[in-house]
Design goal:
Layout: H1 3-7, E1 16-18, H2 23-26, H3 31-39, E2 45-47, H4 54-65
Parallel strand pairs: 1-2
């Protein structure tokens, strides 16, 4: 599954997302960031284990820039 496919999901109320080891999380520097930006205000649980490097940094930055994030 690609980040483009994830971003196009028609839901806006996603609370839990597991992309551990998924190409959407690992193969693009901004793919995971875009996914996080879309659902940052609703997500309460995200699994990005097995993801390294800049993609993780960009995702954390996206959470930091969002208001009202309650993430565990």
């Amino acid at each position: 599954m690609t980040e483009s496919c994830l971003i196009r999901l028609p839901t806006w109320d996603l609370e839990r997302l597991a992309v551990a080891g998924c190409s959407a999380a690992a193969n693009s520097y901004d793919g995971l960031e875009l996914v996080v930006k879309k659902w940052a205000n609703k997500l309460v649980d995200i699994d990005i284990s097995l993801t390294t490097g800049r993609a993780v940094n960009n995702a954390i930055d996206a959470f930091a820039e969002s208001d009202g994030v309650v993430l565990r």
